Each structure stands twice: as structure tokens, then as C-alpha cells.
Amino acid sequence: MLYRFIIATALVFTGVAYNAYADNIKAEFSGFASLALSYSDNEDVAFSPNYLNVDDNGWSATRDSILGGQANITLAKNWDSVVQFVVEDHANTEFENYLELAFLRYRPSRNWAIRAGRLNSDLYLLSEYPHVGYAYLWVRPPHEYYSFASTAGKFDGVDIEYSQSINDGFLRLKLAAGNTTAKLKASGEDFFIDFDNLMTFSATYVLDAWTMRFSVSKANVGDYKFQALDEFINLLNSVPAPVWPQAASLSASFDTKNQTIEYAALGLTYDNDNWLIQSEIGISNSPWLVASSNINGYVSVGYRLDKVTLFSSVSISENRNEVTTVTAPQFLPGTPIQVTLPLQQLALASKAAVDRLVVHQHSINVGAKWQVLDNLIVKTQIDHFDIQPFGGGLWGISDPKNVEKEHKVNVFTVSASMVF
Hints:
alpha+beta, Porin, 16-stranded antiparallel beta barrel, 17 strands, about 15% helix
């Protein structure tokens, strides 16, 4: 609630200042858009660019299409404000899901900046422009890496930045604190998850053609809204320990109480003459089964030929820990079927839930980016995904039988991205 109050205060302050000092205030408006048509060729699994968006297969004109607008408002000396809205194919269509940025910034000196409101997380190389297709090489940010980033790409809180020229390079340090709520859909239901007491630190260093970023974060998993998960945990809690000892530990692993998520990332970009090379690796650590520990990363190489850039990327995402093995309940001889059958079904449901959340996939893509105009880029890209058995946690899988299968998916996309 505190950080939501900060957003409201920042917006109110901006509005009051605008009305009071309208003659001295300068407002600049800009926008960006991507219009994309894509085709996913596997009918058994549904593709989505990230956790927040609708997953589907076949042809889609909304999967990677985005429209965004931003207002940069100079309020007074050392004070400014930024508001950004982004419209895309979110599964949850609440207004708040489309508000990407809404902050008030104060610069007490050339080296320091303090922001309050809705902020970008600064955990990733693309943190400042994840929706601006014009600004990066691919049709969409690498799936294995930025699917996870979508749930923590923005937060409500404050951050403090220090920047300084060092030798021939430029260093930027940022410390942030806040909360965020991931608003998802699961099985057609709202699935909201609060991440409380979020703390992040990032260090970015730019030297000639090189950009390096290191970041760490930690958050407590807070309240959630998902009726199916409530019912599932309550059923596990109702099982007598002697009958099924594992039920209690499964309940604790699915529940959000006393759960934390830790994350560390390292990114590197080399951009010089014809070559553009970029790579990121991220490691998460969490005992919470809904967002278990993962390692993910990618390497991307682009080569410029006049106005056309050819590129290719390799990406991977895997669970870091062994997948939880669900053991069957044990019954005394003669136990009535009215007792054994519901518990056996609960054990099967537990195994299905555990298996469904595992992420284990890798992909390769090739594509081309064409600078048509100063503000218009056309891209085409082909992705080939290899999803391992029990590894489709980033995909929509409606038939439980398909969870245990290996899947190969090809996604073809053509897009036009512009800024205005």
C-alpha cells in the first residue's frame, strides 16, 4: 500500500505542479509501435512472448504487436516526471497492467537522481525499453530470458541512482526498493501474486563499444489471488500425516508463506562497426514451486550490411534443482475406496502441478532487420524451440498428456517497428 500511495502522490504532485506552473512547464510526447504477424506451427502447445500475454498457436496479429505512448514533463529545475502506457495482448486487461511508468524524478546534482512512483526494474539490459521494438535487434526479446523478466519488469517504489565518469568509461549504480504485483491468468482464472519488500541493486559500466551490467534482487512472495491454488493447498493440509507424509511439505512448497525469490544477472553488449553481440545470463533461487530456481540466458550475434542487419541467437532456460518427486499415499490393508480414491487423485493432481511448472527448453533463431526509414524498421525472424518432456512451463498446454512429451515448435514472425 505504501508504494501505491507513492505512485498516487507522484501523479497528484505532477498534476498540481502542471496547473500551478503551466507557463514554466515543458511537456514532450512520444510514441512507439510494433505491428507484427506471426505463426506458431505446433497445435499441442500455445506460444506467448512472456508470462503476462495471451498464449495461442497458429496465426496471430496481436501476439507481438504493441502500441505505447510516453509523456516527459519538465516541472522545474532538477524536477521532471515520466508517464508511459503500453497496450499489448495481456491476458489480464486491468488498466494497471498497461501503466508501465509513472514517476517523479529529482536530480539534486549532476551525479545523483531519485525517482518515486512506478519504475522500471533495471535488472536487465533491455530494462529501459523492453517494449520498444525499434530499439533492439530481434522481433521480440529472447523468450527463454525475458519471459521471466515480464513479471518483474516494473515495480512501485523508489530508487536512487549515482552516475560518474571513470577514466574513459561511464559508471551507473542504482539501488531500489518497492513492491510489485504480477497479474496473470491461469486456467482462465485471475492469478495475482504480490512480491513484497523488493530490493534491487544494479551496476552498469559503459566503455567504448562495451556495455556491462550486473544486478541482484530479492523479494518476499506475498499474498496471492487464485482460487484453484487455495483449494489445492487446503486439500493438502487436510491429509493426515501418517497416510501421506509428503502432503504437508507439498502444501508448504506451493504456499506463498515465508517464501522468497533471489535473482542475479549479468549482461554484456559489444556494439562496434558491423558487429553487434549481446549476451545475458540470469540465475534465480527460490523454494517456491510456482517459481522454482532457474538458470536462463542467451547469446546473440548481429552483422550489419548497410541498412540490413543479419542476426542469430541461441537461448536456454532450465530448472536448477531436481524436480520434486511426488510419492503415493500409503494405506493400511482394507482401507475403504472412499478414502483411498480421493487421496490418490490428489497425489496425481500434485504430480501434474509439479510437472506443469518445470521449465526446460532451448531455442535458436535467425532473422534480418531492415532500416527502412529513420523511424521505421522492418524485421523478419524464424525461431525453433526444443521443449523437453516435463519442461513446458513457459507454454500453454491444455492437454495434460502433452506435458510429458517433447515438443518442437517453429515460430515465424514479420514485424514493422516505429517511433514517433
